[in-house]
Amino acid sequence: MSTINENYQMEASIIIPCKNEGSNVKMTVDSILAAASSDDYEIIIVDDGSADGCCLFLQENRVYQKVKHIHTPGLGAARARNLGASDAHGKFLIFCDAHITVPENWPRILLDTFLQHPEADAVSPAVGSLDKPAAAGYGQTWNNRLETVWLPSPTNLEITTVPLLPGGCLAVRAETFRQVGGFDSGFIVWGYEDVEISLKLWLFGYRLYVNPSVKILHLFRNKHPYSVTFDHVHYNLLRMAYSHFNFNRIGKTLELVQFKTRLKKITRRVLQDGAMEQRRAFFARRKFDDDWFMHRFKIDF
């Protein structure tokens, strides 16, 4: 099954998954509508089993009548994004968290990256904090414990390649998204969706950029408004490792998992859910291996 609608009818589809976001999702949609009223864009909200009525505002004002609203019973972050993409008609897909604000004309500036750099397949803006707007990250990388680390501003604010794109806002060619199969549909609840698709894109021969000339503001929270356990996060981490890493690097990843008493059970579930079959399919398609990726971006893991 295709992960996107291949009948492109507009420039871009802005896809916003949400779950129990309270007033944040309205803030996000209002900001996007104010900044991009063009008919070239559509907005798709995937309400992934919210219990707080966070999307009821869509029915209360005609200003939201063109916003597509998809209800799901709780697919998890990766599959909710894929579902939104399957109903999209844009040549580009822009995935946004439901707790951001955007500057004027941001989608045009972001998508201009693909014109300035035809080799680009995905791009993110700079990401600042709603609480501290002056602070910003410019794409991400991994440290030696496979933790995501924000990158500093590129020299002269130039558009540049980065290893990882943050899920808070990333744009990707719809055709590219289809070719790599979208976000990992085997992921559960939340965790590693953005870094896994970033890694997969690079290994499959695509190129990722950050455009520092546009900055969105993101609400960074201490806890999720829904239940996320270490088991969920560790499951996704190990699924990513078994799908993309060599066995030495898988061993190092296993050592990172907290609660060693749960490790065997989580690993068994990852393997039972087809991680090795996915690994074989990915290895057969990819152009580069994980050693190449780590060396290219000077990641010591």
Average pLDDT for all residues: 95
The helix tally amounts to 10
Query: What would you call the shape?
Result: globular
User: What order do the helices and strands follow?
Assistant: EHEEHEEHEEEEEEHHEHHHHH
According to CATH, what is the topology of the largest domain?
A: Spore Coat Polysaccharide Biosynthesis Protein SpsA, Chain A
User: What is the CATH homologous superfamily assignment of the largest domain?
Assistant: Spore Coat Polysaccharide Biosynthesis Protein SpsA, Chain A
Strands, total number: 12
The domain count comes to 2
- The CATH class of the largest domain, by name, is Alpha Beta
Gyration radius (Cα, Å) is 18 Å
- CATH second-level architecture of the largest domain: Alpha-Beta Complex
Low-pLDDT parts are none
Task: Report the major sheet.
Answer: 10 strands, mixed
Domain Glycosyltransferase 2-like: 13-179
InterPro entries: Glyco_trans_2-like, Nucleotide-diphossugar_trans
Protein name: Glycosyltransferase
Pathway: Cell wall biogenesis; cell wall polysaccharide biosynthesis
Features of this protein?
single chain, 301 residues, alpha/beta, Spore Coat Polysaccharide Biosynthesis Protein SpsA, Chain A, ten-stranded mixed sheet, two-stranded antiparallel ribbon, 10 helices, 12 strands
Strand and helix map with partners:
Layout: E1 10-18, H1 24-35, E2 41-48, E3 68-72, H2 77-86, E4 90-96, E5 100-101, H3 106-116, E6 122-129, E7 136-137, E8 140-142, E9 148-150, E10 160-161, E11 169-173, H4 174-179, H5 193-203, E12 208-218, H6 230-244, H7 247-256, H8 260-272, H9 275-285, H10 290-296
Parallel strand pairs: 1-2, 1-4, 2-3, 6-12
Antiparallel strand pairs: 4-11, 5-12, 6-7, 6-11, 8-9, 10-12
Helix pairs in contact: 6-7, 6-8, 6-9
Keywords: Glycosyltransferase, Transferase
Pfam families: Glycos_transf_2
GO molecular function: glycosyltransferase activity
